[in-house]
Amino acid sequence: MSLSKIEEYFKNNSDQDNILLQEKIARYLDLKKLYKKLGTAIQKDGATITVENGNQKFTKVNPAIPEKEKLNTQLLNLENEIFKTIKSTKSTIENHAQNAPSSSSKGGLV
Known about the structure:
The chain is mainly alpha-helical. The chain is 67% helix and 11% strand. The chain contains three helices and two strands.
């Protein structure tokens, strides 16, 4: 899924006045960009890299792989927090809408 679709989803489904939620969304989007860059670096350099130290030459795991794993964990945690907040906000809005008087009711004191 492209980043712009994710940004659009968050813009349409989140409370724009909730500063904490908007901060989490901005952090999530930044981490998502880094995640994609790490993926590109891994594809370019491969899963392993060769390191030369003087006369020694050895192969080791591409350091981008564990970093990508850490970012994935952070993304999943932020995603979970963001969607809980969005779901909670939607539930609150729906409950208020259900409890609101209908337009046909007269309202006021009788």
